[in-house]
Amino acid sequence: MSLAVPLPAAVETVIMDVRRRLTAQSMPSVKGLYLVGSVALDDFRPGMSDIDFVAVLDREPTAEECAALERLHIGLAEVGGPNFDGVYLTANALKRVPTAYAPWPFSLQGRLRTGEICREVNPAVWRCLARHGRTVSGPPPAALGIADDGDALRAYQIGNLQGYWLTWIEQAEAALAAKAAGEDANAESLAWGVLGVARIACALETDGVVSKSGGGRHALAAHPARWHTVIREALAAHAGATQRVPIALVQEGVEYMRFAITAATARAQRR
Questions:
Q1: 20 to 30 A Cα–Cα from 112, which one of 168, 232, 245, 266?
Q2: pLDDT band at 4 (very low <50, low <70, confident <90, very high)
Q3: Which positions fall inside the Polymerase nucleotidyl transferase domain (predicted)?
């Protein structure tokens, strides 16, 4: 495996195991295996991050081959280590702009799923693969003809902010309102919300794809100083330096998320 920058040891161990298991009987033919997500964006956190992948097959897998892939992921889970999560699809699928989620076989939280809609079939994953994907095997991403479409990506990101993230905010506000005075909250939730929105805001402003850490760093540079404390706290939580935070800090984080969503959406719609 030839990669410009060495993979983290935990990732390398899983990848070597995956490649060995893919040679077993009844496995589909994998023409290319690529890493996306935190590994590709230099934000992998040992003990916390998953290994996100895109596997390119020569054709749609049969039921027998899907069963073999299911055994592969069960075996990986039994060994332990980071979840190996991603999607198995064909090269032709990558050449089409993903305007809707599609039912390709995929792994989520270490378990293979078939016959379900895969949310990793989206323009953000396509762009990450096209611009940052790390090749484990097969041709480089540039040779795949990936349909990396900027308009589709912006529409997807705006929809994500106005759909998933506004719903997340409403649920977080309800949970915070139910807490007693003096209670604290999970710092990872603060990081998930603040940095999840910040990375999309950054993408809408720059047309790039960044990690959660990258989104937080961009927010410190681009957003008013009023929000810098909560952004820094979210970055610290993401790095594993903080486990619990005061409720007031999470409330501030939710307010920042609303600000960032409004600003990023308005800016994107003016383009």
A1: 168
A2: low
A3: 26-67
